[in-house]
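Hi L.,

You mentioned the student needs an example of a multi-chain input paired with its predicted structure. This one should do, with 521 residues in total across all chains.
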Amino acid sequence: MTAGSVRCGDQLKKIRTVRNVCATPSNVCATASKVTRSGFFRLGCLLTLVILVAGIGILVGTRETTLPAVGQWLDVGQLPRSADYVMVLAGDNTSRPFAAAALVKSGYARRVLLTEIPLSEEERAGLRPPYGELARRVFESRGVERERVADLPGECRTTYDEARALAAWIEDKPDARVAVVTTAYHTRRARWIVQTVLADQADQAYFVSVPPDGFDGSNWWRYEEGVYAYVREYLKLGFYWLRYGGVRVGVLVALAAVLVLAAAVVLRRRWRKDDAEAAEPTLE
Amino acid sequence: MVDRPPGALRRVLGRPVFWLIVVALLLIALHRPLLRGAGGVLVVDEPWHDGRHLVVLPVVDGDRWYEVAVRWRNEHAEGTILLVEPYPNRLVEHGLLPSFVEIARERLTQRDVPVEAIVTVAGEARGSWSAASQLSQWLKDNPDARLDILAARFRSRYERHVLDQVLTGGQAERVRVHALPNSEFDESDWWRKRAAVKDVVGEHLRLAYAYLAGNGESDQPYWDVDQYEAKLRESQP
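Structure written out for the whole complex:
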């Protein structure tokens, strides 16, 4: 017997041993592979279910601590400080203009900036005055003269439009400081879009939160209007990140997609390997 | 005996990517009926009573509400229009806007609805639940009356649900809800308009909350402007 044939015989033994470990007959091995494959799937489903149930459970169980945090995360308003202008974001004219007037009267700002928004159906029908006029009435009623209120040029339909109007206006005013007034849960989205649009001039604007009526960040989930406002705001925030996020958000989404794809490829290869092993005939 | 590898068809059907593509294609092909269903589920439009009372809730967002009310009144010469009085918002409280009842009365009388045909259901409705309570009381005081209620199109199922929860002792059957058409969008095309998408999403949220949690109306007072201003003055360095 040559040395080569001895080595070959040893290798054959080794292979047989390995196959024997796999508990012949071979269909048992294949079944084991199937079990591994379906086991992966089942494990994945189970894990997802566990994570979902645990997530909901944790949210419900710790709602008194979690949900206030969820609500308050949206509020990035700062303490008022001195500014040249106070800009009122359109949307809730039953509270934002009152808060802006209070800022002017308390000496935090000298002038008011209003955005121009298209007429609503109610306004077109004459059921209420246009937004700009109504806001001016609020300022007048609170002791802020009409001369101190100015319109930002450009019709605005969204917060993004308002940020663009501010950017165009502030471009040649490098020393102007603007306090942007909006409802508390709207401040994060507003700040993000204003900072994105203003870019280098972003530090010329800061945000003041106006409390919503009937609920706030610490108890929003207890009230229908609170849930309506906060959940919608989260949806809008997501939409804004995707719509106006630009390269940074694009890269993040792409990275997430690549990770998911990579995970899918790895799993697929694993399964194929299992299948191939199951299909391979044993040496016996 | 060795297991044979799965057939090509089985392999394809076993791929999650295949099913993802199938689902995506189905969604694309069926997007119209699906979206129409998503909008339609929010709408309740019941047959009209031959009754004599039409209710206008304080959620009016355009002149079409009054147009419908006036048309109804022209067809029901003995009919009464009920206006549900809401909680005054800050603009009304500060005298900067007339109240809903004042505006509605003016709009209706301008179109030849006699003053005596307009009745205010007194109260301070903060939302649909308290408005339904006000109507419940009114129905108790008028045991033979039946009501036709005008509702915003995508809020009509929500209004029906709230009425069913609040009205008791057979009152709910005396009330019918009518979904007011919107000139700009409806169930068949709401996804094409930004405002309509916001509306539909918001109303789904509202309806889900009402089904799951019931009455979630806040009774907290609105924040006080004078106090807010005083606090700002105090914090002024």
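You could point out the following to them. The radius of gyration of chain A is 32 Å. The beta strands of chain A are 85-88, 111-116, 149-155, 178-183, 205-210.

Best wishes,
N.
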